[in-house]
Design goal:
The complex is a heterodimer of chains A (103) and B (497). Chain A is mainly α and 103 residues long. Chain A has helices spanning 7-16, 23-39, 76-80, and strands spanning 86-87, 90-91. Chain A has a domain at 7-44: Histone, subunit A, CATH 1.10.20. Chain A contains three helices and two strands. Chain A has a two-stranded antiparallel sheet with strand order 1-2. Chain B has a domain at 21-257 and 449-455 and 463-490: Amidase signature (AS) enzymes, CATH 3.90.1300. In chain B, 37% of the residues lie in helices and 13% in strands. Chain B has 16 helices and eleven strands. Chain B has helices spanning 10-18, 24-42, 50-65, 110-117, 160-167, 184-189, 224-234, 268-271, 278-293, 309-324, 343-354, 357-369, 379-396, 421-425, 432-437, 467-481; strands at residues 45-48, 79-83, 121-126, 173-178, 193-196, 216-221, 263-267, 297-301, 402-406, 440-448, 455-462. Chain B has an eleven-stranded mixed beta sheet with strand order 1-3-2-4-6-5-10-11-9-7-8, with helices on both faces. The termini of chain B are close together. The chains are: A mainly alpha (103), B alpha/beta (497). At the A-B interface, helix 1 and helix 2 of A face helix 10, helix 11, helix 12, helix 13 and helix 14 of B.
């Protein structure tokens, strides 16, 4: 099997994907991802010169705009109902820049 | 309720309601009684919605009393279950993930809304692979669903709860979603009619997204007609999903037509594929013979790039999933790991604890495949391969009206039997290219496999927006094989009402 990704690569991807992985998970994830990426090989073996990509199964659609009119939507209260933490009608988060702390 | 409920289809229920043999309230109660009696074993439902069903039943019973049953829609009085990635106001919509364990829907998905407007009795929410990543329902954070045909075996997935609930006769109709085979493969494993319509037939608004260029919603039922009635209710343009298309097709219209004059394509390379078991192969050949004897012409067609569909899917699916699952940020909804001093560590810890291993794998894979330098090696070629696969189908449909293939390479496997992710992915080898191209495909039960004695399904694949073609051929198969039964261990008299 080709080594597409090292454990350091996997730690980098996890950071980018915002998923904390334990040292143990990094090891299994590296093995799993390398096996899966290996299985994707056929995609690299076709002669695709001049073939247009299809990004979407329904090709010949154009964008549809609705009238710019105000409609009913979630109230602020409903929008906050599933928020793990809230305060004064807003989502509550810890500091983005690292200082502050949990409230 | 005096009449056995488990084996009833849509028309049986509506006939009984019209004749006042029972009320819609009694139908709902019968469904809940069977769930109470059987679902401790099957574990198809994550939540039941007695109050919502009672309200819906009152509307139907009032209409019956006023002689307006016929106005109440194609699913009037029919218990329906919903895959737990579909929002229904006031219910939990968990996607079988710890990430959404406590999430309560503030709105209702269009597909669910359409069934309610068609008179359905909402019975509850059904188990699935976490975020629909899987082919066995084993990745549910709330425990697996068992296959009613053999409780030692998986029901398939990811819509395993939706399939098992119908196979056990708990509800006659359920909804699932299909990104690479997640309706059709559990349909085959549980011996059901299971439909993935053409991309664009059913709105996905309010269905938690996995692969947005691949996802489609569709029904499970035991008869072709019930599935067609359900799809009639589901189909159509929804301005809240810009990919949904106008649809005024009555999918029940040509069920009695037969297949005389129809051309049915078979794909030799699929029939010779490595991993296809002898019993499934024999059943597909038998189904082709049944259709031929009923007057169809069997023609050989080729899908030369279908072999690349698998790898194209495992590029496109994870990339789209990576993007879609970025919304779980521990801020607006979903699991939030407590006690973090900065947002970055809250994100990482919440997503680490909220997502299961398969979800993490797919997110990580998508993140990698979309990264600079790698994109051109996999993602872009996968979209080019998609063009070739779509062209293959277009060429095939110049020679036939519908294509007949296996659904899954084998019948239902045992829990834990397949633990290697790449081996699990092979479950979808015959279904994936249909999502890539966007066609409609459905699983049709054709009896039990000669070796395992478990249900086998064949897949019928229709040209885009010609889903009626596959229903017509499916009805001809049903003429021969009969309407799919409730799994024997859960038949009327053995369980509940």
């Amino acid at each position: 099997m080709t080594q597409h990704l090292s454990e350091a690569d996997v730690r980098g991807i996890a950071e980018y994907a915002r998923i904390g992985l334990s040292a143990e998970e990094v090891v299994t994830m590296t093995a799993d991802l390398n096996a899966i990426i290996d299985s994707l090989k056929p995609i690299t073996e076709f002669d695709l010169d001049g073939v247009e990509p299809t990004f979407h199964p329904i090709g010949d659609l154009s964008n549809v705009m609705r009238d710019d009119a105000v409609r009913g939507s979630f109230t602020q209260q409903v929008a906050l109902e599933n928020a793990p933490k809230q305060e004064d009608g807003s989502f509550l988060i810890p500091s983005i820049l690292g200082e502050g702390g949990d409230r | 309720m005096a009449t056995p409920f488990g084996s009833m289809g849509v028309r049986d229920i509506q006939r009984g309601l019209a004749a006042k043999e029972f009320s819609a309230a009694e139908v709902a109660r019968a469904s809940f009684e069977r769930i109470e009696a059987a679902d401790g074993v099957v574990h198809s439902f994550l939540e039941t919605t007695e109050a919502l069903a009672a309200d819906a039943a009152i509307r139907i019973d009032t209409a019956i009393a006023e002689g307006r049953l016929a106005e109440m829609g194609p699913l009037a009085g029919v218990p329906v279950g919903y895959k737990d990635n579909m929002n229904l106001t006031g219910t939990h919509t968990t996607c079988s993930s710890n990430m959404l364990r406590d999430y309560v829907s503030p709105y209702t998905a269009t597909c669910v809304e359409h069934t309610l407007r068609a008179g359905a009795l909402p019975i509850g929410k059904l188990n699935m692979d976490e975020f629909a990543f899987g082919s066995s329902t084993e990745t549910s954070a709330f425990g697996p669903t068992r296959n009613p045909w053999d409780i030692e075996r998986v029901p398939g997935g990811s819509s395993g709860g939706s399939a098992a609930a119908v196979a056990a006769g708990l509800v006659p109709v359920s909804l699932g979603s299909d990104t690479g085979g997640s309706i059709r493969q559990p349909g085959a494993f549980c011996g059901l009619v299971a439909v993935k319509p053409t991309y664009g037939v059913v709105s996905r608004y309010g269905v938690v997204a996995f692969g947005s260029s691949l996802d489609q919603v569709g029904p499970f039922a035991r008869s072709v007609e019930d599935a067609a009635l359900a799809l009639n209710a589901l189909a159509g343009r929804d301005e809240l999903d810009c990919t949904s298309q106008p649809c005024d097709v009555d999918f029940t219209a040509n069920l009695a037509e037969g297949v005389r004059g129809m051309k049915v394509g078979v794909v030799r390379a699929f029939m010779e594929a490595e991993g296809l078991t002898a019993e499934v192969k024999a059943k597909v050949e038998e189904a082709a013979a049944v259709l031929r004897d009923a007057g169809a012409e069997i023609v050989e067609v080729e899908l030369p790039h279908a072999q690349a569909a698998m790898s194209a899917y495992y590029v496109l699916g994870p990339c789209e999933a990576f993007s879609n699952l970025a919304r779980f940020d521990s801020v607006r909804y979903g699991y939030c790991d407590p006690g973090h001093k900065d947002l970055g560590s809250q994100y990482e810890a919440s997503r680490a604890a909220g997502f299961g291993p398969e979800a993490k794998r797919r997110i990580m894979l998508g993140s990698y495949l979309l990264s600079a330098g790698v994109y051109d090696t996999y993602y872009y070629p996968a979209q080019q391969v998609r063009t070739l696969i779509t062209q293959d189908y277009a060429a095939a449909y110049e020679r036939c009206d519908v294509i007949l293939t296996p659904v899954a390479p084998r019948t239902a496997f045992k829990f834990g039997e397949i633990s290697d992710p790449t081996e699990m992915y092979l479950s979808d080898m015959f279904t994936i290219s249909i999502n890539i191209a966007g066609n409609g495909g459905m699983s049709v039960p054709v009896g039990l496999g000669a070796q395992t004695g478990l249900p086998v399904g064949v897949q019928l694949i229709a040209p885009p927006f010609r889903d009626a073609n596959m229903f017509r051929a499916a009805a001809a198969l049903e003429q021969h094989y009969g309407v799919a039964p409730v799994a024997p261990d859960f038949a009327d008299g053995k369980v509940g009402a």
